[in-house]
């Protein structure tokens, strides 16, 4: 694994592999992801309903949807999306994460295709997905513009990419690094390298450069009094972005 | 016996008023609920006249409306139009007119059996709720992702979360290793129904006597429910009296404002004990209602608090299921626990504050019917707040408590 090419970084992967056992502990190092999860899943579901018109019913609204979850970790997103009916392929370069996530999926009889792989490997298979997710990943890769291109390339015509990360602002540094890593003690110090943070305009530019149109952008703010995240207009710290590949023009025959 | 376990989204243990309300909330939102009740509903509904009543606060009524249950209850509900309080025999009377808040009644007095009928009728119309009544639990196994129940009949049930709604004496609570603290008050509560000559006009009456508080709650027709707390010894003496002699004791305390009195149905005796569970959640388990905190066995004010639990659990569970999240994982239980502990502590803080104003220790009865509200008259700025709390309308409310659908 871990070719230090565009998409993965051995040291970064090592940080998360070491946490493989802790992914599902809501009081562990992944606490912020647990707190974010309901809000970000609700937002993703809304984007899917708006742009992909999935065929599912109330219990399984994402039935039939082909989803790729890049940097799936312990399966925090892959599991809920699979329960909602999606056909999920979930990849992570840290093999420990994949092994643990597979055990969980089997115990719950969730059909999730977990693979120890980097985005490049999936791209090399020329696969395409209705929904490509890369949440809280791009700040950990060495070449973010190239990574954004990989993500975009995996989106099928008419499909969506959803990415989230932390913006490169002074406030983001104060909250995500000083706050989350040092003051709240949520994350092990060194989890984030501020210089790798990506601004929404930068990310949007890279995705547009690969043929996607930005369809939604929202900020995500932590409310310490309630210990929860909520959606906010300002994308100055944490943000979620959705981009769509235009559908293949109808009437144009392939080949 | 049955080979395959039935798997649902939520297991409810205890199909009484609280368990059925939870089933109606989660099942009504389209999720599969499996209810296990020890008694058989056929026998429960055929039971001889019961007479126990519940004071349904306004917030609870909003929730029951949102669950589609209120229309079945309303024909049997007597609105409380006002409360009168007297200390000792001295007529220092305080009156709250319900008009003080939006012109709606302060609450309604309803016989428990009517509430049970309405809840059952609602739940039986839901294809998502399966009732296993007349069934004892033989064994409970909690795994990483599931709770599994084996019933005495051999039937097996499973879900990611078990809601224990068995009431204050919950056996499952202890079986799961969750401790509970108990405070005994050395008092016994007596509950019975009176038939009287003159109409009560919807006025609830609270009287404080040196040997214990005494309340008369308006029921439908010319009937009232008596809720009377007495020292254990005195209560034992009352127990020895025949209906006629007992009615005479009641008349002596209550006076003749309602004319001639006679008893209807049985008298119920309850030791006044506060039961407080050391925690509301455990691995894949949530304690709901009196199983979490039994504030008082009489007069059913505890059900209003239980319905706030129901609203909080139902909202947490349904929101998570809609997002594909596991409703029984620790993060889910944490949000329920935090939500409810704050609410319960707020209630205890309020009632405890009021309690200090009283010379004698009447906490259980005041908790039971918010008698403490009478003293709020002496604290004018706080009055509305107390009243709103009594009506279940204060705090960070779950959607159902605001009458909104899930």
Relevant terms:
heterodimer; A: 255 residues; alpha/beta; Rossmann fold; eight-stranded mixed sheet; 8 helices; 35% helix; disordered N terminus; B: 406 residues; FAD/NAD(P)-binding domain; six-stranded mixed sheet; 13 helices; 21 strands; globular
Describe the structure.
The complex is a heterodimer of chains A (255) and B (406). By secondary structure, chain A is an alpha/beta fold. Chain A has one domain (10-165, 194-219): 3-Layer(aba) Sandwich (Rossmann fold), CATH 3.40.50.150. In chain A, 35% of the residues lie in helices and 22% in strands. Chain A has eight helices and eight strands. The longest helix of chain A has 21 residues, at 31-51. The radius of gyration of chain A is 17 Å and the shape is globular. The N and C termini of chain A lie far apart (35 Å). In chain A, 46% of the residues are buried. Mean pLDDT of chain A is 86; it is low at 1-5. With 406 residues, chain B is of the alpha/beta class. Chain B has one domain (6-182, 274-402): FAD/NAD(P)-binding domain (3-Layer(bba) Sandwich), CATH 3.50.50.60. Chain B is 35% helix and 31% strand. In chain B, the strands form four sheets. In chain B, strands 7-6-15-16-17-14-18-21 form an eight-stranded mixed beta sheet. In chain B, strands 9-3-2-13-20-19 form a six-stranded mixed beta sheet, with helices on one face. A four-stranded mixed beta sheet of chain B has the order 1-12-11-10, with no helix packed on it. In chain B, strand 15 and strand 16 (212-219) form a beta hairpin. The longest helix of chain B is centred in the C-terminal third of the chain and has 28 residues, at 330-357. Chain B is globular. The A-B interface holds A 24-27, 34, 37-38, 41-42, 45, 58-59, 79-84, 104, 107-108, 227 and B 30, 144-145, 319-320, 323-326, 329-331, 334, 338.
